[in-house]
Sequence to fold (875 residues):
Amino acid sequence: MRLEPRAHAPFWLNLTAPIAAIGLAFAFCALLILWSGAPIIDSYAALLRGAFGSTFALTETLTRAAPLIFTGLAAAVAFRAKLWNIGGEGQLYAGALAATWVGTGMVHLPPFLMVPFLFLVGAVAGGLLLLLPVILKLKLRVDEVVTTLLLNFVVILFANYLLFGPWKDPLAMGWPQAAPIIDEGILGTLVPRMRLHSGLIWAVAFAVFAWAFIRFTRWGFQIRAVGYNPEAAAFAGMPIGATVLRTALLSGGLAGMAGVCELAGAKGYLTIDISPGFGYTGIAVAMLAGLHPLGVVAAAIFVAAIYNGADAMSRAMSISNYLADVLTATALLLVLASVLFVRFRPQWR
Amino acid sequence: MPEVDEPARAGGGAPVVLRLDGITKRFGGLTANDAISLALKSGEILALLGENGAGKTTLMSILFGHYVADEGTIEAFGRRLPAGSPKAAITAGIGMVHQHFTLGENLSVLDNIVLGTESLWKPTQGRAEAREKVEHLARHFGLAVDPRKLVRDLSVGERQRVEILKALYRGARILILDEPTAVLAPKEVESLFATLKAMVAEGLSIIFISHKLNEVMAVADRVAVLRQGRLVAGMPIAEASNESLAHAMVGRAIALPQREPLAPGEIVMQLAGVSMAGGGGRTPLQDLHLLLYGREILGIAGVSGNGQGALAALLCGLALPDEGSFELLGETVTTTSPAGMQRRGVGRIPEDRHAVGVVGDLPVEENFILEASGDRRFCGLGILKGRVIRRHARALIERFDIRGADPTTTTRALSGGNMQKVILARVLSAKPRVILANQPTRGLDVGAAAKVQQLLFEARAEGAGIILISEDLEELLQVSDRIAVLYQGRLSQPVPAEEADLTALGLLMSGHGEFERYRREAGHAA
Fold:
C-alpha cells in the first residue's frame, strides 16, 4: 500500500473518519469482551445504559465531563500554538489549592460574586504555574514537555503536604482533607437530588469563549498563525514570545478552572484524590476533538460516558472496568490514524 | 497528439533504449500525465521541456519508480520495467540526478558514490578498486572532483558531478537530469554540457528536464514539450526554434512586461561599509556599499549562497550589521524588528514562500492581514473585523488576479504562482517605499513570472525603490535598472542594465573580475 497526499479532503470524510474510527474501537474491544467470557451485545447495552440510560447515569456522565471539558480546552488551546502543555494535572491542583486558600473563610462574598471569584483565583493560579516552564522555554529553550510534566508531581506533593499538615481539617475525623468551601462558593446543582452542578454550564460557556477567542480575536489569530508556522508569523512581525505567554495564561487558566469546578462543584472540599487524572485525560480529549474547542465538549462527554458506562458494564457483566481505558486509548489511536486517511489517499498496488 | 518516436528522423537507426507507452497519472481531479508516449534512443539527449506543473517531474518520478502510473507501461532495453520500484530502475540501467541532491554531507565523495552498492556479507570493502573506477569515470567524462573530499566542502557544481558519478558508477546507461542547471553558474553550465556531450558520444542516453529554452536549444538532440500533462510537441532540435518551443510550452503568446525609463528618485536606502557575520548557515557580508533610489529596480545577481541570505535578513529586519551603517529613508536602523521594518515602509517578499511567506494552513484572507492584523482597519478592541477582512480579500484577489482562490481557500492549496501573488498583494497593498524581492519568480511559470514582474514595475512607477535578488541573469537584465553581483559576501559595483552583458556578469558571478568597493559619492544621482 502506498499513501499519496490528497489535494482536497472531502467534507464527508472529515466527519465520517473519526466516527468510523470510534466504531472500529468498539469492534476491537468486542474481542476483549468476548475473551473475558461476556456476551458482546449485552455488555455494550449495559455500557450504554450506564452512560445515558437514566437521569442518574446521564447526570453522572455530565458531572464527569465538566472538568474534562476544562482540561481538554487547556490542552487544545496550548497545542494550537504548539505549546506542549502536559501539566494540566498540576495546574488543576494549583487552581483547587488557590480556591481552597481563599474559599474556606478568608473571603466572604455573595454567591453571585463568590463563584466567579473562585474561578478567577483558580485560573490565575493555573496560569501562573504554566508561566514558569514557558518563560524557561522562551529564555533558555528548556523543553516544556519535561518541565510541565514534572511540575505536576511538585504541585501534587505540595498539596499532599498541606492536606496532611497545616490545612488538615480537624473536623474531618482524621481524613486528609481541607476545610469545606463556604456555602456562598458552592456551585448549585442543576437537577434535584443529583450531583450535576453548574460547573458544566461554566465549562460549556468557556468552550464557546475559547472557540470565539481563537476564531475572532487578534490574539487568537496570532495563536493560530504561530502554531501553524512560527517562522512565517515571526517574519510577518507577530510577537512570538508574547503570543506564547498569552497562550500559557489561557491554557493554564482553563486547567486551573477544572480544579475549581471539581472543588466547588462535585466535592465541596479539597482532597488529594480530587482528580483521577483529569489533566492527562484532557490531552486525549483535546486530540480526539482535533483541537477544536467546541469539539472538546463532545469529546469530553464521549470519554466521560465511556468511563461511567464501563463502570456499569463491569458491575453488570463482571468484567474489568479497565476496559474503559482500553476503549478510550483504542479510540484515540484510531482517530489519530483516521486523520492519516483524511490527509492521504491509500493506493493499493 | 504527436508522438515522439520517429527513428528515421533523428539519431538515424539508433536503437530505442527506453520506451514510455501511454503513461497516465491522476492526482485526485488533476491529471498530471495524460497518455504520454516517449521513446529515447541510444546516444541522444532528449530535452523534456515544460513549465512548472506541466508534469515533467511526475513523469520522471514514474519512470524511476517513485510513483506508480495509473495506466501505461515502461520498457528499458526491450524489457518491461516493473512499476513502483526504484531498485528495478537502477538495475535496468536508469540513473537519476534529482534537482535537490541526495548526498550525505559528512561522508567523502567516494563513500557517497559506493553507498548502497556494497554487499553486506563481503568482509572487505574493496575501496581501492572502487576509487580507481570512480577516477576513471571522472577522467573519462570530465567530471573533475576529488574522491577523498567530504561532500560538505564541495561547491554545488561539484556536488552535481558526484550525483552524476553515482549514477554512472551503478552502471547507468540512461541518465535523467532534473533541472540540472538551476543551481549552476554560467561557467559550470558550460562544463556540464560538455560532460553530457561526452557521455552521449559513448552511447549513453540522456533525458534533460528544463524550462529554459536557450539551454534546450544548446544541448539537446531532440525535444519533447509537455503542457498541462500532455505531450504537445516533439521534434528534432534542428526543426525547433525559441519561438515555436515557447509557444508550444505556454500555449499562448506571453506579453513580457517592459521596463519604462523613469528618472530615479531620492535615496531610500543606504548601506555604507556593512559587514555582518553569517549566522544560520548564511554567508557573511564584507564591506558592502550600496545606494538604492526611489523609482528604480536594483538587481542583485549571483549564485545563491553568496550572501543573499544575509542581505535579505538585513532588509527583513531579522539581523543588523556588525559594522557599517544601514540607513532607511534617512534614518539609521538600530534594532532588529520585522514589525519595525513594516512601519518604516519596507515591503518584504521572502525567498521561501511556503516556509516564510505564508501560513499555508490559514485561509487566504488571513494571510492578507498577517502583517497588518493590528491595523485599525482590520481590528477594533482586539476583535478582528471579519467583514472588512473579507471585503479586503475579495478586492485583492480581484486586483492581483489570484486564480482559484476565494477569501476562505486554504492558502496551501494554491499553486506557487498564485501563492506568490498572495504575498505580493499583501506587501504591495501596504504601499511600501522600499521593497526587497528575494527570488520572487523562482519556480513560477512564464505567465505568473510576467505578472510578478509587472507588479514590481507598477510599484516602481509609484516611487518605490526595489532590491531584486535573483539567480536568473536574463530576468535581471530585462527587469533591473542597475545590476550588481554578490560573490562570497562581496558586492560588485552596480552597472546600468543597458551597459551590462551576460558574459561580464557571468564572470563576476563565478568570482572572476573586480569587486571594487562601491563608493557612495560616485556620481550616481547624476
